[in-house]
Design a protein that fits this description.
Number of helices: 19
Bound molecules: beta-L-arabinofuranose, zinc ion
Number of domains: 4
Radius of gyration: 26 Å
Structural class: alpha+beta
Low-confidence stretches: none
Number of strands: 21
Mean pLDDT: 96
Helix content: 25-40%
Largest sheet: 11 strands, mixed
Strand content: 15-25%
Length: 677
């Protein structure tokens, strides 16, 4: 273990009280979790089916039949599955439906529930989650294998297509849920199921066994977590094996593909790694420099790598993580904290290719970036990691869910014209309104789990230092240098940059380190007399003996900022975006009329910006108004082209709302980047 690494607090020891975020966490508990439970059971009218409960129950019946020595005849072969029953047909009871990774949706739901239970016990919710746990355990095969797709189609073909068929991905999500459930309830039913599946995997893959690695990463970080929870080193070893075999020659995905081709009498393909960028298997991970391929996969891989860097104190892996981080934040990050510039492969595009209207920016990818950032913070407290984590959380992660928690975005563009989305197939991936559910529903339960575990992103600690990464109001119990203190942080960044920390109980000696956010103007800090303070890597450190009644106040000024992109971002050339604190603001048709591209913002007059509030869906949110100009709309008979003349404009005012809150007032245009005068 890297000696100076910090750890998040257990969710038992931190309670979010922030006016905005406490509402979000409550919304997940009261509205989103019940809604998603229904979705997993296909009980949301007019929504895409989930098949989760169907597949789990069907797999449990198959497993029971096999245990009883009965012949189980699959309804489909694994090479030919149906995502939907044929038109008008009832689903077959013992058939698998949906994407191969459908199991993971319920695992994420369960993980979210576990975090909620840690924050606040709830017998009814726990009983519902227990039902899910029992369903999952019943679907586990005798040898520990647990993946309903293969159980219901063709178990003999398990582990033959790690590249595409996601059984290690489902294992990863199962394990994440199992650890959270164990921490929340002390129960080891699901943890044992995860362990048994892990054993089944470890019996097959490893340094002296078959070579192979996950086609969609997450097992790496999940195994590291299983190791941290159980102390059983074989799980860290398996994670390390998966990391090191990835991209090594001969490429394991190519080998398995050739085995499948041979069965069909097809010629072999080259076994080199070059063509596996999408899966981040194009080179050994320790050599990676650029974030490429499927964005969620890349982010989850980075998490596993960062865990390895921390848990094995592996400097080579840390250096690779730092390079990948730089690649993302200096060339491939949307201002909204999203990643993944192209829908082709749901992937990172080339450097600086960050289109606004065709953006992919999958909600899960922003969540993955926040996971990665927290892990980098654990390794080294540099404020840039927290800045980006905050940027992802306050913007793209939140925009993935409606303010009422009943509909979701998978893709998070920075510019939307509903007419274009509905008529132009190049924009088929961009939905102008949030959806009730998705055939591929990875994002909604991912939002539920990250928001429910928000407490783990606010602070991390070493033995003697508590790092305040996010200014989100919360109460916490912390052990510093062997003594326990209770702290209350009050903050509400939706309103202003005032942060107030008080020691409400106990006494301890140690250091508090406060991040100086990139968005802050000036910081005015008041610390008790006699406390030594200094600044380092974007954190203000304060060392002293902290006792009940001690107070620290920080006032960060939070001006409205006009922001431009690096000129190499072609899509944002001559455009400006307005931000305040961690929030990116956008213009919506509801406030500014149609044809938002005709607006000309005036970045030089940003000092004229007026902050106000606006009630959207019953929630009071910050808004900004700014002086602007608007190009006059051409008359009906205006020619398509005409000799150049300066555009005719009129003075106007634009109103901007937080990006996360867009599309909560019906369908309409939206723009983050506005043409700059
Ligand atoms: O493949 C599993 C999940 O489905 C990915 O993370 C998402 O991008 C979606 O493709
Ligand atoms: Zn997703």
């Amino acid at each position: 273990m890297r000696s100076e690494a910090s750890q998040p607090l257990s969710l038992n020891n931190i309670r979010v009280t922030d006016p905005f975020w406490a509402r979000e966490i409550g919304l997940i508990r009261q509205a989103v979790i019940p809604y998603q439970w229904k979705a997993l059971h296909d009980q949301i009218p007019d929504a895409a089916p989930s098949w989760w409960a169907h597949n789990m129950r069907a797999a449990a019946r198959a497993v029971a039949a096999k245990k009883a020595g009965k012949l189980f005849v699959p309804a489909h072969h694994s090479d030919k599955i149906e995502t939907l029953p044929e038109d008008g047909k009832k689903p077959q009871e013992d058939a698998f439906y949906g994407f191969v990774f459908q199991d993971s949706d319920g695992y994420k739901w369960l993980e979210a529930v576990a975090y909620q239970l840690m924050t606040k016990p709830d017998a009814a919710l726990q009983a519902q989650a227990q039902e899910a746990v029992d369903m999952i355990c019943a679907a586990q095969e005798e040898d520990g294998y647990l993946d309903t797709f293969y159980t219901l189609t063709d178990r003999d073909r398990a582990f033959t297509n790690l590249r595409d068929n996601h059984e290690l991905y489902c294992f990863g999500h199962l394990t994440e849920a199992a650890v959270a459930w164990h921490q929340a309830t002390g129960k080891d039913d699901l943890l044992n199921a995860a362990r048994r599946f892990a054993e089944c995997i470890a019996n097959k893959f490893g340094p002296d066994k078959e070579r192979g690695c996950p086609g969609h990463e997450i097992a790496e970080m999940a195994l590291m977590r299983l190791y941290e929870e159980t102390g059983e080193p074989q799980w860290r070893d398996l994670a390390q094996f998966f990391l090191d075999v990835r991209g090594a020659e001969p490429n394991t995905f190519a080998l398995e593909e050739n085995r499948r081709r041979a069965e069909k009498g097809l010629p072999e393909l080259p076994v080199s790694s070059e063509r596996y960028q999408y899966h981040q298997a194009h080179m050994p991970v320790r050599e990676m420099r650029e974030a490429v391929g499927h964005a969620v996969r890349q982010m989850y891989l980075c998490c596993g790598m960062a865990d390895e860097a921390r848990l094995a104190d592996d400097p080579e892996m840390l250096a690779a993580c730092e390079r990948l981080w730089q690649s993302v934040v200096s060339q491939k990050l949307y201002i909204t904290g999203g990643v993944g510039g192209t829908h082709v492969g749901e992937a990172f595009s080339r450097p600086y290719d960050l289109p606004a209207d065709t953006a992919y920016s999958e909600t899960c990818a922003a969540i993955g970036l926040a996971f990665f950032a927290r892990r980098m913070l654990q390794l080294k407290p540099l404020s840039n990691y927290a800045d980006v984590m905050e940027q992802a959380l306050y913007n793209t992660v939140l925009s993935g869910m409606a303010l009422d928690g009943q509909s979701f975005f998978y893709v998070n563009p920075l510019e939307v014209d509903p007419d274009a989305c509905e008529t132009d197939r190049r924009l088929a991936h961009v939905k102008p309104v949030r959806q009730k559910w998705f055939g591929c529903a990875c994002c909604p339960p991912n939002i539920a789990r990250i928001v429910s575990s928000l407490g783990q992103y606010i602070v991390t600690q070493t033995q003697d230092t508590l790092f305040f990464h996010l200014y989100i109001g919360s109460d916490m119990i912390v052990n510093l240098g062997g003594s326990s203190v209770t702290l209350r942080m009050e903050a509400d960044l939706l309103k202003n940059g005032d942060v107030h920390l008080s020691v409400t109980d106990g006494e301890a000696q140690g250091i508090f380190a406060f991040r100086d956010p990139a968005w802050a103007g000036n910081a005015h800090v008041k610390i008790p007399a006699g406390v030594k303070s200094w600044s380092e890597n974007g954190y203000l450190y304060a060392k002293g003996i902290w006792k009940q009644g001690d107070q620290i106040t920080i006032h960060f000024t939070m001006p409205v900022r006009a922001v431009k992109a690096n000129p190499l971002v072609k899509e944002a050339m001559h455009q400006v975006c307005f931000t305040r604190g961690p929030m990116v603001f956008c213009a919506e048709e509801a406030d500014n009329g149609k044809h938002l591209h005709l607006l000309r913002a005036l970045p030089d007059q940003v000092a004229e910006a007026r902050e106000k509030t606006m009630v959207i869906d019953g929630l009071t949110l910050p808004a900004i108004t700014l002086p602007a100009r608007r190009i006059l709309e051409p008359g009906e008979n205006a020619p398509l082209y005409a000799p150049w003349t300066p555009a005719e404009t009129e003075d106007t005012e634009i109103t901007l709302v937080p990006y996360f809150a867009w599309n909560n007032r019906g369908k309409g245009e939206m723009r983050v980047w506005l043409a700059a005068e």
